[in-house]
From TrEMBL:
Keywords: DNA-binding, Restriction system. The keyword ATP-binding does not apply. Transmembrane segments: none annotated. This is Type I restriction enzyme, S subunit. The keyword DNA-binding applies. InterPro entries: Restrct_endonuc_typeI_TRD, Restrct_endonuc_typeI_TRD_sf, Type-I_RE_S_subunit. GO terms for biological process: DNA restriction-modification system. It comes from the Bacteria. The lineage of its organism: Bacteria, Pseudomonadati, Thermodesulfobacteriota, Desulfovibrionia, Desulfovibrionales.
Length: 375
């Protein structure tokens, strides 16, 4: 939600610096090499970074990301901390006035607000202390704050439970296909042969090309992280299969157009008569652990892949097998899209409820959230 422009009747609007005490002068960064492990949380802009031997603060306070955070509506820009802990210089430390402002109220408000108007710096975005103190905070009577916070707590607990369940379902949908793919190549099917990968397809290291060397065109440049740019020249013809060699190790891609396989990948130079889509699915399900170079900067070694002994289907049955895998993948992707949309709806519901809360329109109707969660 955007910053409040019209204040609800009976509410006041004060800059954060007048409603809170900013305790930034007490925070202190400790470099990683100088930290001594201990029982006390060491907080940064987005949460706990480490545990250290000592603490600075010993009270319930609000932390707000100064840099290295996100400040859009719906982000966890602010969070409450309590107990004994240390805070570095990337999070503002704020104490609310208990007679004027609940810490949960300001936390909900800041996390529901788009604070981009208060962010400075182009290369390193930052919510500096001066801008922080300028943020207008709506202040209902304390009793009204308590009522609204209690309603938000209950509503958000129900939504968060639904989000957690949906995220589990999303993971299950992904793992269902991964498990199916692993099962396809795990056992020797009827007519399958035990063979060496180098006898089924040949991998080749990709070609180096910098952004400066690229001439914009229609040819996708495929790196280990996917298609990041386009060039005017292809190095490989479609259909193509690429797997991450370094960076996103083992991530496979299927190309239906001519392409440029980047140096960070291995690409299938020769399918030796095999169905390209089947080779893609094999590489997609391949566990690359132990196949890397074993160096400080791991890279997938094509010779290690070539040396693998596997069960392999006869060429005349590969098209049918690919169709079955395609169907299972489509089902998985359909389920994933449903759950991803539900997650978006749940996050939008949170924002809608916060919008009502800070416009003075939030009711205490117990069915307010449950009705919408069932839809």
């Amino acid at each position: 939600m955007d910053q409040i422009s019209n204040v609800v009747i009976g509410w006041t609007l004060k800059p954060l610096g007048m409603a809170c005490e900013v305790l930034d002068k007490f925070r202190k960064p400790i470099t990683k090499k100088d930290r001594v492990s201990g029982p006390y949380p060491y907080y940064g802009a987005t949460g706990i970074l480490d545990y250290v031997e000592n603490f600075i603060f010993d009270e319930r306070l609000v932390l707000i990301g100064e840099d290295g955070a996100k400040w859009g509506a719906g982000e966890n820009t602010a969070f409450i901390v309590e107990g004994q802990y240390w805070v570095n210089n990337h999070a503002h430390v704020v104490r609310t006035d208990p007679d004027m402002l609940l810490d949960k109220w300001i936390t909900y408000y800041l996390n529901g607000s788009n604070l981009s108007a208060f962010i400075t710096g182009l290369t390193v975005p930052k919510l500096n202390q001066g801008k922080l103190k300028e943020i207008p905070i709506p202040l209902p009577p304390l009793s009204e704050q308590k009522r609204i916070v209690a309603t938000l707590d209950k509503a958000f607990a129900a939504i968060d439970k639904s989000i957690a369940n949906t995220e589990k379902n999303l993971v299950n949908a992904r793992e269902l296909f991964e498990s199916y793919l692993n099962d396809v190549f795990a056992e020797k099917g009827d007519g399958w042969e035990e063979t060496n990968i180098k006898d089924q397809f040949i991998l080749q290291r990709g070609f180096d090309i910098t952004k400066k060397q690229q001439i914009y065109g229609t040819i996708p440049v495929v790196s280990s992280g996917g298609i990041k740019s386009h060039h005017n020249t292809a190095k490989a013809i479609a259909p193509g299969v690429v797997i991450g060699r370094k960076g996103s190790l083992g991530t496979a891609y299927y190309l239906e157009e001519d392409y440029w396989p980047h140096d960070t990948t291995l690409w299938v130079k020769d399918f030796i008569g095999n169905n390209p889509k089947l080779v893609y699915y094999f590489l997609k399900g391949l566990d690359v652990k132990g196949l890397d170079s074993g160096t400080a900067n791991p890279s997938l070694n094509r010779n290690n892949v070539h040396a693998l002994n596997v069960f392999w289907p006869p060429r005349q049955r590969q098209k049918h097998l690919v169709q079955k895998i395609d169907e299972m993948m489509a089902k998985s992707q359909h389920l994933q899209s449903i759950y991803q949309q539900k997650l978006k709806n749940l996050k939008d519901l949170k924002q809608s409820i916060l919008q009502k809360a800070f416009a003075g329109e939030l009711t205490t109707d117990p069915d307010m959230v449950s009705d919408q969660l069932e839809n």
